[in-house]
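SEVERITY: medium
COMPONENT: batch folding queue
REPORTER: lab tech (J.R.)

DESCRIPTION
The queue accepted two submissions in a row. Attaching both inputs and their returned structure tokens so the on-call engineer can compare them side by side.

ATTACHMENT 1
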Amino acid sequence: MLRRIFRKFRKDEIVKIENNEVDIAALRKKAEDYYRNRDFYCSEAVLKVLKDSFGAPYGDEVIKMASGFPVGMGNGCTCGAVNGGVMAIGMFFGRDAAGGSEVKKSMELTKELQTEFTKKRKVCCCKVLTRGMELGTKEHIGHCIEITGELTEMTAKILARELGYKEK
């Protein structure tokens, strides 16, 4: 069984959307595995999985933009996984020209993501989410893996709905 799981989630394999259905659980697991295996931190893992699976028209170089967000932007502010979700929403619904009205949709969906996350976790602040945990400990890493998965799932549901896919 482990061999089968490993084959399914090799680093270079993408969780594909098939038959217009998004396997939300598989996306979550892929993001969690990226973090667990130390391939990517929270913001990077969320962005990478959603970029790849939903077919954003960008190469992996966009992951570099997410590299400053882990550990609450390095000082404990906004959760990096939240920022990864926001960046993923922006990839599909953000504007690319001055004055573009697309920003309204991006901000609306970002607000939805933030509201859903704070409904569950109460805050988006990394310092508060990890209060009492020492950075890099098993407890801290496990907690962040879970949050990375949650944000991937929440963002994937928004993207699936807005892009016209069904959830599997």
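ATTACHMENT 2
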Amino acid sequence: MIGPALRQWDSHHAIHEAAWLEAEELTRNLEDCIAQRELHQAADMARILLEHWETRTLRHAQSEEEGWYREVVAENPAMEAEVIALCRDHELMRTLVSQVTKLLQTEGAMDAILRRFEALLLLVSLHSRDEETRLLVRRQGDKSDDRREGGAQ
């Protein structure tokens, strides 16, 4: 059984938004460290950011897959293709996080690490929008956060 927060647009959107904003801020901090050639600090920031993705977004994705997505398909089998696409997004996120983990062991890979974190921001932005508009019933008058429509700005 899953908690009600995953089924309600307002609370589910708030989960997505909080995680995305935190990841975006940490990514900009990483970008600043790289630009200033503070590579030790950049490596530390990348590890903090990696932990964020693992403990916030990927853990959330896992709970969706293990509970909520199954409920959605059980209640409406026509939604299976949507759920499969969303699970594919989760796999892409896991792949990017795995690549960052490996790249952290490679000296001079900070630019490649930053590109993957930026790709994660864009991917999760698009994924969250799709999930919220396709699987969640929105109350009339709710609007998604326009700052995220095109990804990180």
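NOTES FROM REPORTER
Confidence is low (pLDDT under 50) at residues 138-153.
No errors were logged for either attachment.
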